[in-house]
Amino acid sequence: MKPFIYLDNAATTKTAGEVVDAMLPWFTENYGNPSSIYSLGAKSKEAVTQARETIAKSLGAQTEEIYFTAGGSEADNWALKAAAEAYGDRGKHIITSKIEHHAILHTCQYLEKHGCEVTYVGVDENGIVRLEELEAAIRPDTILISIMFANNEIGTIQPIEKIGEIAKKHGVLFHTDGVQAYGQLPVDVDKCHIDMFSASGHKLNGPKGIGFLYIRKGIKIRSFVHGGQQERARRAGTENVPAIVGMGAAARRAFRILDEKTKKETELRDYLIERIEAEIPYCRLNGDRTCRLPNNVNFSFRFIEGESLLIMLDMEGICASSGSACTSGSLDPSHVLLAIGLPHEIAHGSLRLTLSEETTRDEIDTVVEAIKKIVNRLRAMSPLYEDFVKKNQ
């Protein structure tokens, strides 16, 4: 029987047992509506407050600056659309990067159709935003900079503190998509001058369908969902108490084990990179070698198609991806890999492996051997590889 090895933790993570245990009573026992005035509802309201306090503490934020959402994509949409609406009298110019998640890029495209101008700044070959280009793009009518904390495909961590300093110096709001970073990296919203921060529960062993948006006190952001007075009248709708409790439990767990988890994942990540580079020719590590998420490995293999590699890995019981889970049905090469300068034919041969604290060295060895076998098999069927070998003999 083939082993089951899950290395797609950037797409989603297994909900931790302690998170599930924390959530269960709020489905069947303490099921009151937090907006109710009786004691059953008051218990739910207190649980929501406790989760909010936990998350605020993890960011160095105030409790009332945390707003629960249905996930990271909603939080990204809220930050951009509400900022464009609230600060439209000051200007309609937004700056973002070419390697953002589609929750940001597609929202920017939407805003462009509604009167905003968007500048998409470039990145270097490792995926790091060009700070000089970013600062040069700021105009008198710039109202918002939105740069992701860490890239979901290649794992590159951005110089968020420096970007925050640039935004603050020019009096521009700074939002960061922290979906991949939250629970993987320490975050201090004051130190990094972050005005808005998005996160999602299922990326840190929490439940799906829950996230939050940090909004710095004093930022003029309006309601995103209209109806009731929930989330201090900024997001209507009955709170998803079990999921909010789960998000709080996941955050508490993530930062409790952060140092130990980071150490283990970094060691396994570097071991995986070392083996692939040493044993599989004509491959390229994508993303910054050191300034990257502890659990992220992304390679491009020449002369193969990434989709074929994924299918054959799945047949070996190995779960991986070629990039963002939100674009897995697309036949186009990754916009992130194109932005760092890869040609289409190499970008098509990409593989993303993302580890967890449960990943073992034996699993890494099994995966490397499977990749070697599959890459060799696919290249043996490639006329391009055959021509390349003949020319280089």
What this model shows, in words?
This protein is of the alpha/beta class and 393 residues long. It is 42% helix and 13% strand. The chain has helices at residues 17-23, 25-28, 39-59, 72-86, 102-112, 131-137, 160-169, 230-233, 241-256, 258-279, 306-315, 335-339, 344-347, 361-380, 383-391; strands at residues 5-6, 66-69, 93-97, 117-121, 142-146, 173-177, 196-200, 211-215, 283-285, 296-301, 318-319, 350-354. The longest helix is centred in the last third of the chain and has 22 residues, at 258-279. It is globular, with a radius of gyration of 22 Å. It starts with a strand and ends with a helix.
What layout of secondary structure does this protein have?
Layout: E1 5-6, H1 17-23, H2 25-28, H3 39-59, E2 66-69, H4 72-86, E3 93-97, H5 102-112, E4 117-121, H6 131-137, E5 142-146, H7 160-169, E6 173-177, E7 196-200, E8 211-215, H8 230-233, H9 241-256, H10 258-279, E9 283-285, E10 296-301, H11 306-315, E11 318-319, H12 335-339, H13 344-347, E12 350-354, H14 361-380, H15 383-391
Helix pairs in contact: 1-9, 3-9, 4-5, 10-14, 11-14
